[in-house]
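FAQ

Q: What does a record look like?
A: Structure on top, sequence underneath. For example:
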């Protein structure tokens, strides 16, 4: 069995796993980080999005062994203690979650979007979220949440 070593939310982890273990299953089952969700297992829904070396990736599309040596951030790694990450706070504020099942993947994708494009248009936000399916919100409040974080950062940068 391959020996897999990676950093997850700042912690070094090292385990032997069967070669066919998906990264999402490794995160949820081996590490007990169940904030990363599985909505489809067919790479469509985006509920499983985590950051791999700073980029949002569907964790059901990657084997754990392929992430050997990588830096992984899951939804559990975003908040600082009791302080929510600004994107998490904005989702809550703008009512960007209803059932909440898609939320971890949405938040991880949204954080990556603003890292790459701090000032996206509404179309760019909607385009970026094409790989994330939400069955509840109609996306409007999710888009508003992302826009409010982008606006906040702009205001902070100008201050
Ligand atoms: S569980 Fe990975 S895309 Fe749906
Ligand atoms: S809030 Fe339910 S799927 Fe998005």
């Amino acid at each position: 069995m391959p020996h897999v070593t990676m950093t997850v939310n700042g912690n070094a982890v090292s385990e032997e796993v069967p070669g066919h273990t998906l990264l999402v299953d490794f995160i949820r089952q081996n590490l007990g980080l169940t904030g990363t969700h599985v909505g489809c297992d067919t790479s469509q829904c985006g509920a499983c999005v985590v950051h791999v070396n700073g980029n949002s990736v569907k964790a059901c599309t990657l084997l754990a062994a392929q992430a050997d040596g990588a830096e992984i951030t899951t939804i559990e790694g975003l908040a600082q203690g009791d302080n929510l990450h600004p994107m998490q706070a904005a989702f809550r504020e703008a009512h960007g979650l209803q059932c909440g099942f898609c939320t971890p993947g949405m938040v991880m994708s949204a954080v990556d979007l603003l890292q790459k494009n701090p000032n996206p248009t509404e179309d760019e936000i909607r385009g970026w979220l094409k790989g994330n399916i939400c069955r509840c919100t109609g996306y409007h409040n999710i888009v508003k949440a992302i826009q409010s974080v982008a606006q906040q950062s702009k205001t902070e940068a100008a201050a």
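Q: Is there anything notable about this one?
A: The longest strand covers residues 3-8.
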